[in-house]
Amino acid sequence: MTVSSDPERVNPLRDPQDRRLPRIPEPCALVIFGVTGDLARKKLIPAVYDLANRGLLPPGFVIAGFARRDWGDGDFENVARTAAMEHARTPWREEVWARLAGNFRFVGGAFDDDAAFDRLHDCLNELRDSHGIMGNAAFYLSIPPAAFPTVLKQLERTGMADNAKSGGWRRVVVEKPFGEDLESAKALNDLVDDVVSAEDVFRIDHYLGKETVQNILALRFANSLFEPMWNSKYVDSVQITMAEDVGIGTRAGFYDATGAARDVMQNHLMQLLALVAMEEPTTFDASEIRAEKLKVLRAVVPPKDVAAETVRGQYLTGWVGGARVPGYLEESDVPPDSNTETYAAVRLTIKNRRWAGVPFYIRAGKRLPRRVTELAVLFKKAPHLPFYPEDVELLGNNQLVIRVQPDEGVMLKFGSKVPGTQMELRDITMDFAYGEAFTESSPEAYERLILDVLLGDRTLFPDAAEVEEGWRIIDPLEDAWAGTKPATYRAGEWGPREADEMLAREGRTWRRA
Q: Where does the chain bind NADP(+) (predicted)?
């Protein structure tokens, strides 16, 4: 049973607010461009299997692949089966795969091959009759950003992205990075708007599909405990950290032209900042949530003194996880004179009444001691401590820490008396872990996001204005950094010493993630 956007086809037995039955899309096709790439093989196809395993796909669901391969439908199905068996989150069940078997289609060709796109157009028309997809299809652009314009223009030429011509809905899914600066992002937004309507564009930021990121909204707006203190009167500072223990792997071509700030700060970390700083929406509607996030991003003030309020770093040879690893300049295919940053730290402020005077420290880096993404709200210290100074030496700021990955959960840090005859105080923590509190494991981000695309739910997808505001913040930094050399840090360290000094000048330290 499904809920249709057409009022004449609404299921009369189904209340949209009834959560006892899962949301299931209408019969449709998911078309993946670049289906032979790592993203499709390790994330997208396994996510489709996991959705099927949870009973969240319609019987008339078809997955179509497009790539430069001389494959038939059976070849693609075999490749997809192997990918799902190796990377799916949920247990393998033959009966689940049997329901998907036979629902795979493959079209081979290059992105500039008109004949191949004509064949894809004919394939979707045939599926309307054979699988009852009623013209519904989502196009997932799992391809390099440089190929976006070519594929979009092919969709426009064939009319495949036109809802009226298809007789159903057509949606386009675009992976980050969406542009490489503000100018290119605007050009790409204009192109997408020419091809498909704004409400049918889904810009994927997979961080927004993570349960703990969505829990930021629940934590703030479902409880009366935190919101009264969620402002400059009580908050000293906010730290957002995205640390990776890995290097660049085989992504040298992309990464050396991009760097840490463009790769993750403009999108992932700006979205986390918006969620933690936004005002309460009037409803939990996609347009209301995005409106509040956009207000925050427009109020963000880039550093006035880039040299003092930002730090770029590049890792040297060092030790991570007990193994010796090469420096960035020794990585395969990296130019020996590269000035690309593998670490970036930025101090931002938000120009509104709630956050006036509160610094937001954002950092991201590779080859750090461990993999962790977290948001830490550090509260101001009590204005008066009626204790002997030596009894409170180990007492720090109260902290609320939201762990996005890998140990998803929430931690509250506060002061408590140490057992004994003296009034000695030190920090303790109360910890909530998703894996321990709930019997059901959290779905992969791509599971939630693919399902939302097929349902047409845009709550977790940034719109064009949000993307452009992210570039408005990052572009001045990139301009100031041009031609400068990044500071260095050894692999296995928490970034350059200059990043510690940036906070030390204001009497603060980075939270040890």
A: 68, 176
